[in-house]
Specification:
mainly alpha; 67% helix; single chain
Amino acid sequence: MQWYAEVNTDNELEKEIEKFKWLGEQEVLSEAEVMQKISEAEYLFSKENAALTLQ
């Protein structure tokens, strides 16, 4: 299950957020870990979008 706790930028941001919330509901991740992973995903997706805009 730990593999699923990584951010997959090939997926859509909303799907990643849903995944982390689900992992929290399943008690695979703590509430703090869920919030940290969502923040990490938002950062990585915004960084990826910024890179695409510059091209």
